[in-house]
Automatic annotation (TrEMBL):
Annotated residues for binding of Mn(2+) 2: D151, H153, C236, D238
Enzyme Commission code: 3.5.3.8
SUPFAM superfamilies named among the record's database cross-references: Arginase/deacetylase
Annotated GO MF terms: agmatinase activity; formimidoylglutamase activity; manganese ion binding
Protein species of origin: Candidatus Pseudogracilibacillus intestinigallinarum
GN (gene name): hutG
Family of the protein in this entry: Belongs to the arginase family.
UniProt-recorded name of the protein: Formimidoylglutamase
InterPro entries in the cross-refs: HutG (IPR005923), Ureohydrolase (IPR006035), Ureohydrolase_dom_sf (IPR023696)
Lineage per the UniProt record: Bacteria, Bacillati, Bacillota, Bacilli, Bacillales
Enzyme class per UniProt: hydrolase
Pathway(s): Amino-acid degradation; L-histidine degradation into L-glutamate; L-glutamate from N-formimidoyl-L-glutamate (hydrolase route): step 1/1
Cofactor(s) named in the record: Mn(2+)
Cofactor notes: Binds 2 manganese ions per subunit.
Length: 309
């Protein structure tokens, strides 16, 4: 089911040019979204940590969507168009991850059908499977989906039970028209078996220590984009150094710095084939002074601003 609507509130400046996100975002039911030919964005949250629980991670990610919204609310809004909507959160009830992912997919497909760009707020990284289901439903079975994942982990475990660590294997084994590029891989975060599985299923990867010079990573992204019809993007917050993002399921001592995350995100979202994105694994239970949710909110605010240009 959908949870109660988030109340977007925050600081207000007595000036026509003093707008902040909370003054622009419109809460709306998905059935009331209007089709548009102009760039518009719709938030949907995924209040779920069942995949993390199954993957034996630290719990708390189900509080991520509203924590991100809280930090985003008072960020200054620098876009002339007021084109932001929020359809609420899809909740995972009774540990029924598969049903929740299906419902998230239906919401994502509904947003795309109105020609809005979905921004999905996780939730554990099991969020991505629902994200993928929605895009696949929206574009049909034959178009090539390119999945770009900013992540320290492959998330291609061979476990029989779906979790936050299995999605990309699930997708690649069942969808011949899906491709996978993961950027930020940590050798100390993945077993040899996971590297083997990635190679066997044709996944491409860039290790965290090989991202620079950044131009080489951009070239890898460009080639990947060229080989697919649409691009969907996901940020697993545990790719970020734990000094910046302590509030995650699996903290990263050797994680990426803030500028790298910003650069790659802005590069991907400005691609013409980009259709949707999610941010996952923000865990307020372990956050410090809202560092993690605040950083992700800034990344999203910048991406929205750049996509609107």
């Amino acid at each position: 089911m959908m949870s109660l609507v988030f109340e977007w509130t925050g600081r207000e400046d007595l000036n026509a040019k003093g707008k902040r996100f909370h003054q622009v975002v419109q809460n709306i039911k998905i059935e009331d979204l209007k089709k548009t030919s102009e760039q518009s964005f719709s938030f949907v949250g995924f209040e779920c940590q069942e995949g993390v629980r199954r993957n034996k991670g630290r719990l708390g990610a189900k509080e991520g969507p509203n924590a991100i919204r809280s930090m985003l609310a008072s960020i200054p809004y620098h876009v002339e168009k007021e084109n932001l909507f929020d359809i609420g959160n899809v909740r995972c009830d009774d540990e029924n991850l598969e049903d929740a992912q299906k419902r998230l997919g239906e919401s994502v497909a509904g947003i795309i059908s109105k020609q809005h760009t979905p921004i999905i707020l996780g939730g554990g990284h099991e969020t991505f499977y629902g994200h993928y289901l929605g895009v696949r439903e929206a574009i049909g079975p034959d178009k090539k989906i390119g999945m770009i994942n900013l992540d320290a982990h492959f998330d291609m475990r061979i476990d029989e039970t779906p979790s936050s660590g299995t999605m990309f294997r699930q997708i690649l084994e069942s969808d011949a028209h899906a491709g996978y590029l993961v950027i930020g891989i940590q050798e100390l975060g993945n077993t040899e078996q996971l590297f083997d599985t990635a190679a066997q299923l044709g996944a491409q990867h860039v290790k965290a220590g090989e991202i620079y010079p950044i131009e080489s990573t951009y070239e890898t992204i460009d080639a990947f984009v060229a080989a697919h019809d649409v691009i969907i993007y996901t940020i697993c917050t545990d790719v970020i150094d734990q000094s910046i993002a302590p509030g995650v399921s699996a903290p990263a001592p050797f994680g990426l710095d803030a500028q790298t995350v910003r650069n790659i995100t802005n590069y991907v979202v400005q691609k013409e084939k980009f259709v949707s994105m999610d941010v996952s694994e923000v865990n307020p239970t372990y956050d410090v002074d809202n560092r993690t949710s605040r950083f992700i909110a800034y990344v999203l605010a910048e991406a929205i601003s750049n996509k609107n240009k």
